[in-house]
Amino acid sequence: MSPKYDLDKIKFATDPATFERAVDLYTSGKVTKFKEKEGVNVYSAVVQGGQPYHVSVEARRYGCGHCDCYLGKKSTLCKHIVAVALYAVMDGQPLSDEDKKSVNNPTSSGHLGDLTKEELVTIKKAITYGLRYIKPYNGPSRLWFSYQNSLQEGCGRLAKIVSDLPVNKKTAQILVTLLLRLDEKLTRGGVDDSDGTVGGFIQQVVEILSEYAELDPSCIETFKILAGRPTCFGWEEPLVRLVDEG
Q1: With contact defined as beta carbons under 8 Å apart, do 222 and 171 qualify?
Q2: Which residues form the SWIM-type domain (predicted)?
Q3: Spatial distance between the Cα atoms of 160 and 76, rounded to a whole number of angstroms
């Protein structure tokens, strides 16, 4: 029985602190007695922590499970559940250094470079996929936290893409387009960003584009589309200012 999720799903849908603690548990061999429960699509294990914790995780959705730790008893996703999900995905094999990295915020790669046409197509498809998680909220209040997790996952997936981009005019255009798509979701797409997950991501990408402009001034030309264009909270102003100063 293979899990219906993969390492990326776990990484991007888990808050960075919990993911990093789960990685520590997994890599230090604290997940023991792992087994599959035939016929019920559930994995079970004993995770050694302050005491042995009995953990179960669904094969279909890694966030659905049970742990007898303090958080698990409150139906909160804990590091023990995530560690068992990691074991299911990795089949007990080691994680690479890249696998272990959690994605906190987008950053600029800081280096100039170009992309092939094929790479550009792949990146645009990955962005579209990440944007699927930033969706309208129209459910009951009991689904609020799972909805926020979806926004977090979407921004996490997008942060990884943004952080890997080389600096050039084409990638600046990709980021400007991404910002406009996110703005559309916030202003007219029904996204409830009450906790500022998406807004914070937008501000960080604006800062990255400001860094792009320093490294490659030709990137500033891609900001012209923002002039005179109202946005949900005026995030475009620093970029338009660079156009005016140029």
Answers
A1: no
A2: 53-89
A3: 26
- Whole-angstrom CA distances from 183 to 115, 170, 202 are 26, 20, 8
In a domain, 136, yes or no: yes
Q: What is the pLDDT of residues 43-69, one digit of tens each?
A: 999 999 889 999 999 999 888 899 999
- Calculate the CA dihedral of residues 115, 116, 122, 124 and round it to 10 degrees: 60
User: Which structure tokens are listed for 20?
Assistant: 């990093």
The answer to whether residues 128 and 79 belong to one domain is: no
Q: What are the tens digits of pLDDT across the range 144-179?
A: 777 888 999 999 999 999 999 999 999 999 999 999
Q: What per-residue confidence (pLDDT) applies to 145? A: 75
Mean pLDDT of 97-103: 89
DSSP string, 134-178: S----S-GGGHHHHHHHHHHHHHHHHHHHHHPPBSHHHHHHHHHH
For residue 107, tell me if it sits in a domain: no
Give the distance, in angstroms, between the CA of residue 40 and the centroid of all CA atoms in the same chain. Answer: 29
Question: Cα–Cα–Cα angle for 97, 82, 109, nearest 5°?
Answer: 35
Return the H-helix or E-strand segment holding 72: helix 70-73
* Residue at which a domain ends, from 100, 133, 156: 100
End-to-end alpha carbon distance in the chain = 59
Map residue 27 onto helix, strand or coil. Answer: helix
54 close to 46: Cβ distance less than 8 angstroms: yes
- Asked whether residue 182 falls in the same domain as residue 235, the answer is yes
Which residue range forms the structural domain that includes residue 64?
7-100
CA 67 to chain CA centroid, nearest Å: 24
**How many independent structural domains does the chain possess?**
2
Q: Has residue 106 been placed in a domain?
A: no
